[in-house]
Amino acid sequence: AKENGRNTFRIYTKDLHHDLTEKLEMLKRLRHAIEQEKLVVYYQPKIDFNSRRIIGMEALVRWIEDDGTLIGPDQFIPIAEDTGLIMPISDFVMRSALAQLHEWRELGFTDLTMAINVSGKQLHSPDLVDNVLDAIRRAKVPANRLELELTEQVFIENIQSHTNFMHSIREHGISLAIDDFGVGYSSLAYLKNFPVTSLKIDRSFIQDLPGDKDDATITQTIINLAKNLDINIVAEGIETEEQVDFLLERDCNIGQGFLFSRPLPAEEITRLLEQYQGL
Ligand code: C2E
Ligand code: CA
Ligand code: CA
Ligand code: CA
């Protein structure tokens, strides 16, 4: 038994050491990727179900390795949040997305909105509002074309600085969306206290529609809630026409998902815009 115990211990420390080494290695590569500008922003269109037109974009960051491998944000955003690297990454995404919006506007697509994901960690920076406003001015785009997507966690924390941030963002005409709505520990009171302009129904509620009764009820309830509070509603992760029908019948008219388009590099989105939104 003694032998066994010692072996277990040895295996355990070895794993721990392995995890740590892997994390540090990842961190080193990520830092390098930022310096070498190996990050790119992809865009996923937001669609108006009735007209089937693209009304806006969500910016989603990717990391492209030297051999062309694409690494998704789920694999590096958490580590970036833990190490402060989220700041340079966010700056990069904000600059790229707003410059791209400007380019699309120059091509005549002036109605598009641009949504950018903001990490809760960024809200700890007192300069965030100034940085956002500065980025808007530099890109020469109107503030009311920008939307910031915040996850529910940020709203629940209900810290005075967060509240201040949201109010001053709204005062400048920038929109505020709650991302992944419904998956957090919802205290619905925050909807009353924060100047939210839209709710994004999480993909986990959409994926089994229309068959799953519970998900149908939850989705219907979120839509009603948004309507009664006069907040816009957006459905995420739409993959089938049946899901679109379900949502349309319940008066949710806007969404994004693989059914319409995966997130794509800017050039491919430009082609989509030119094809379907010819001027
Ligand atoms: P999110 O903000 O909830 O973004 C939606 C995710 O769902 C994206 O994954 C998108 O590719 C995926 N998606 C969209 N439509 C469908 C669909 O029909 N089916 C399925 N299965 N998936 C769909 P992605 O790009 O891997 O991003 C994952 C998460 O990483 C995002 O979730 C967001 O929280 C975070 N993220 C991405 N870019 C940024 C960024 O620039 N800054 C920050 N702070 N976080 C980011
Ligand atoms: Ca989002
Ligand atoms: Ca989401
Ligand atoms: Ca269920």
Automatic annotation (TrEMBL):
It comes from the Bacteria. Residues 23-277 form the EAL domain. One of its GO terms (molecular function) is cyclic-guanylate-specific phosphodiesterase activity. Keywords: c-di-GMP, Membrane, Transmembrane, Transmembrane helix. This is cyclic-guanylate-specific phosphodiesterase. It comes from Pseudidiomarina planktonica. The lineage of its organism: Bacteria, Pseudomonadati, Pseudomonadota, Gammaproteobacteria, Alteromonadales. The chain holds residues 471 to 749 of 755 of the full protein.
